[in-house]
Specification:
Blueprint (H helix, E strand, L loop, with lengths): L14 E2 L9 E4 L5 E5 L5 E4 L4 E6 L13 E2 L6 E6 L8 E6 L1 E3 L9 E4 L22 E2 L8 E3 L1
Parallel strand pairs: 1-6, 2-7, 2-10
Antiparallel strand pairs: 3-4, 3-8, 5-7, 9-12, 10-11
């Protein structure tokens, strides 16, 4: 299978949410596939991927890059979106399932959404002004508490 960007499993950078509702907030991923179940021939196996790139962008500071931040964020006001990219190089077989797991540092009564996006962004160059548009693949996390792993 060719190298292609994906989502993540347990990033080293936790997702934080500010006090505003996250209903409209979007967690963006180049493709959804963090815990991959690959099926070579008859057996299946689980593969855990870490992101090869991650960053967040904010409408409050549209020209600022947060690619070196130690956390990811999502929020509805101001609009804050996180971008994650994974590599599928070296994975063979058919991928039958993907699970995105993030660790929360605050609670949310509305959760976050995951969308596909293009791969045309760089961790150290992405800003709100040049970020790829929100794509398809609307998956929702549902509500969650602070300090827990949230899977989508």
């Amino acid at each position: 299978m060719p190298a292609s960007p994906v989502a993540l499993v347990r990033p080293r950078r936790p997702v934080r949410r500010a006090a505003a509702a996250v209903a409209a907030a979007t967690l963006l991923a180049a493709a959804l596939i963090p815990v991959l179940l690959a099926r070579p021939a008859a057996a299946s196996s689980t593969i855990t991927l870490n992101p090869t790139a991650d960053a967040y962008v904010s409408s409050a500071k549209p020209t600022t890059n947060y690619g070196t931040s130690t956390s990811l964020r999502v929020d509805a006001s101001p609009i804050v979106r996180s971008y994650l990219r994974f590599s599928l190089s070296g994975i063979s077989g058919t991928i039958s399932k993907a699970v995105l797991t993030l660790h929360s540092t605050s609670s949310s009564s509305t959760g976050y959404y995951v969308h596909l996006t293009s791969t045309g962004w760089g961790e150290k160059t992405i800003t709100y002004n040049n970020a790829p548009a929100v794509g398809s693949g609307n998956l929702a996390s549902g509500k969650f508490a602070s300090g827990v792993d949230v899977s989508t």
